[in-house]
Write a structure and sequence with these properties.
Length: 133
Amino acid sequence: MRTQKRCMGYVAIVVDDYDRAIEYYTDKLGFVLVEDTPQPGKRWVVVTPNLESDCHLLLARASDEQQQGFIGNQCGGRVFLFLQTDDFWRDYHAMQAKGVRFCEAPRQEEYGLVVVFEDMYGNRWDLYQNAQS
């Protein structure tokens, strides 16, 4: 019997400019540009933390005033995205050196090591490493 694999393929994040967003996510966060395909009136732009990841970030340029209002506040100010790492300190120091804005000092929780940061738009992320890693 064949089993189907289900996973999150893409998470869309509203951005103001494709090229600025690509530069930020690839340079500051170390993501990889997977695809940048022109489409009528827009582009299909996909980045990922690594090429083996099943979940990718779709950089979606705001197309109207309503969408522009959500840039940087897609989740009402709470942590919106979670970037899991196998080496917290490596990624924390690399991101810090690139000027990523951290909202707090790293902290140890029962589930692992975590720190909140904001992307270029103000969306809040957790960088975390599971306690088992």
